[in-house]
User: What shape does this take?
Amino acid sequence: MAMAIFAMATPALSLQPSLPLHNVMLHPCFSTPLRFKAHSGTGIFCVLQQQQQRKEHHDRKRTGVDWGCDPLSLENGTLLKEWLSTEGLAKQKLELERVESGGRGLVAKQSLRQGERLLFVPSRLIITAQSEWGCKEAGELLKEAGVPEWPMLATYLISEASLGRSSHWFPYIATLPQSPTSILQWTEAEVGTWLSASPVRERALDCIRDVTETYKDLQATVFAKHPQVFPAKTYTLEAFKWAFGILFSRLVRMPSLGQLALVPWGDMLNHSPQAAAFLDSDQSNAKAVVFVTDKSYESGEQVFISYGKRSSGELLLAYGFIPPELNPHDFVELELALNEEDPLYDAKLAALREQGLSSPQRFPVRKDGLPEQLIAYACLVVSPATIPAHFSQMAEAATQAGTGLDIQSILSRDDETNAYELILAVCENSVADYSKFLESNEVQHVDVNQVGSIPRTSRHQMLKELAVALCQAERRILYRLQHILRTELRTLRSKSTGDSFIGTYGKKRSNGGLFGLFKWNVDFLEKY
Ligand SMILES: C[S@@+](CC[C@H](N)C(=O)[O-])C[C@H]1O[C@@H](n2cnc3c(N)ncnc32)[C@H](O)[C@@H]1O
Assistant: This one.
């Protein structure tokens, strides 16, 4: 689903870190920019199909898109399975049911052992950017325009959905939610209000704007030029957001094919942060999509896969939910910046830029420690060094782990202390922002225990629950970090010799320096 599933199939959307950080496992989001410049093309019409489509949709709801179903509908799922069976889907050991987490999900019809291969959705029943278009002219125009994979697939979905029953994919499209959950369901104002304390806010706004801009580009360069093929009433921004919402929450990149795909039936599997199973093309046969159970299941239990090692923020953006249980893949971004009053500001900024970094710069932090890169960046910020080569070394260490930089040979213990204090101050400010939000009247009594359930009492309530669950998850990491930093600072200060930079240059310190610090076992902090 944007399943990360499948590399589980690698999920399609994620918070893109601005840096390649070794200890943060992130997945490619839009690996190619969403916006693109298309070339003009010629038009052939699909008039008959459009007339039929207009007739079929005439009586449908006029708000939102005309296709898809209620997110809890099981009837369409049953029809989908019947259709897939007639098209060659093997007998299933899984059944579509209403489930507590995720609305609908696949449940074991019998006990399943660990290591069992399931699904076997024939490859010809999956949708990829190479799939045949019901309206061939539309496909040709997009290919001619050089439209990238994501907007190509989004347009494909709209095109097929708008054909109604005459589309080959009708039974599948009928099972897709009419309002797919993802950040695209939120308005920019809602993001601004509810995610104000979290760095995810910027990602969310970027994501909404990217999709909107992509639509505008496509509209100007292709749709508007061929209105008979892409009728304005059908190819609306709303339809485009629906299609992107479907892609965000269901598209998977299958590791062995390296291909993005929608997998009917397979995309009814929900995510668990504890799961390690993922969709992939059958290696032995390569003609079906399968997954291998990573644990045994009793009959009647919901079967989960993993959409990837995704943080709560990433899950919220792509899939529109946050798991209620502790998510081992959570991280939060901390932002550091050079001090503009620093007389060495220009030299430090130049060193950062040489490494493709900037000021400010964000770094993801997980519950088990600080990335070396963040520490190196903090060292650069506080460094009084006068040797420009040291700036370059620190900036390089801020881009990647394991550069072998001996910070202790560059910074005194006092500078090291300053670097910790800087990180602690940033961390404390961030915690204060989260706490202010979480203690505000609007959300202080929100109960997030039901955050994974569908449907919710109201949309307003849903946004509040998601925002609270996200902020709690992110603040939890910062609490740990504060604890670690305060403890270490106490140790550093108690040992402080007041050594000057010159006095300590080149000496090794007994505590192993900054890079040794975060190898601690921090499980005792689980109480947070
Ligand atoms: C690939 S679909 C899975 C099938 C989906 N439940 C359905 O009924 O169509 C992904 C969507 O399922 C929901 N989902 C998946 N895992 C979930 C979970 N653990 N908790 C809550 N919702 C989940 C989210 O709405 C997500 O966008």
In short: The longest helix spans residues 459-495.
